[in-house]
């Protein structure tokens, strides 16, 4: 039996469509296996979901002036947060998502026998950090270009890593937590400061806030246990985690 040209074309298109569907399904299954799913993005979101939370879109370097705003100390009491960090004069610390260095250059004088790594992925922030480090002459500050899945620091090198209003924007939170886990010394600590999602008076977009429950769920799934949680900050969680050994 002869098959018409139109029928042959229909069969070919059907095979291609089925192949494409199978490929998409395999890709979705692979994504889910890695711990991520996707959805239609909310306003300010990426559409990428981790453990039930949509990951927020990253704040670009154009928002640097907001990080250094004059009202930040009054709004967040950053100095109180630093006073409660587990710092010793010889501590090795990583400010992950350092931005303009608002925290980096306030912590550096407290660890003069140690080191502060200012880890950042955006080139404009990196340039600003390097210029500021040279201007202040702080030899114990080192600027490091991080990646979206790595902080590019040696294994077992850190006493403390911290992220201030950064974690909710990580494109690959699972991989980044694993990278931080490797970089921490045994018993090393990871501090998260995140705007409180539980508090409706915190006037921050929803995707840029996190609940304490969600933070614990994600970190405890990646080798950390809650060491200390404090509520002394005006609008942020202060949650200190300890590295657990696998």
From TrEMBL:
Q: So which domain of life are we looking at?
A: Bacteria
* InterPro entries found in the cross-reference section: Methyltranfer_dom (IPR025714), SAM-dependent_MTases_sf (IPR029063)
Q: What GO terms describe the biological role, i.e. biological process, of this protein?
A: methylation
Enzyme Commission code(s) on record: 2.1.1.-
| Single GO MF annotation | methyltransferase activity
One Pfam family cited in the UniProt record for this chain: Methyltransf_31
- Alphabetically list the UniProt keywords: Methyltransferase, Signal, Transferase
Query: What are the residue boundaries of the Methyltransferase domain, all occurrences included?
Result: 89-209
Q: Does the keyword Cell inner membrane apply?
A: no
From which residue to which does the signal peptide run? 1-26
- What is the protein's given name? Class I SAM-dependent methyltransferase
Q: Which organism is it from?
A: Pontibacter ruber
């Amino acid at each position: 039996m002869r098959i018409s040209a139109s029928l042959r074309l229909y069969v070919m298109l059907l095979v291609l469509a089925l192949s494409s569907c199978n490929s998409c399904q395999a890709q979705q299954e692979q994504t889910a296996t890695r711990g991520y799913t996707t959805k239609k993005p909310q306003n300010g979101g990426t559409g990428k979901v981790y453990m039930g939370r949509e990951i927020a879109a990253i704040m670009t370097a154009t928002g640097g002036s907001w990080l250094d705003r004059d009202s930040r100390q009054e709004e967040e009491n950053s100095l109180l947060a630093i006073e409660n960090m587990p710092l010793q004069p010889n501590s090795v610390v990583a400010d992950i998502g350092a931005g303009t260095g608002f925290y980096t250059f306030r912590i550096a004088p407290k660890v003069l026998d140690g080191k502060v790594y200012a880890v950042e992925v955006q080139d404009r922030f990196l340039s600003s950090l390097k210029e500021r480090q040279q201007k202040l002459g702080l030899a114990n500050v080192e600027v490091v270009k991080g990646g979206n899945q790595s902080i590019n620091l040696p294994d077992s090198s850190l006493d403390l890593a911290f992220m201030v209003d950064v974690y909710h924007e990580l494109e690959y939170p699972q991989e980044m937590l694993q990278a931080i886990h490797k970089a921490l010394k045994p018993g090393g600590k990871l501090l998260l400061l995140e705007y409180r999602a539980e508090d409706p008076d915190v006037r921050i977009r929803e995707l840029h806030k996190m609940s304490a429950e969600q933070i614990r769920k994600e970190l405890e799934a990646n080798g950390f246990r809650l060491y200390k949680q404090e509520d002394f900050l005006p609008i942020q969680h202060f949650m200190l985690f300890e590295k657990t050994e696998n």
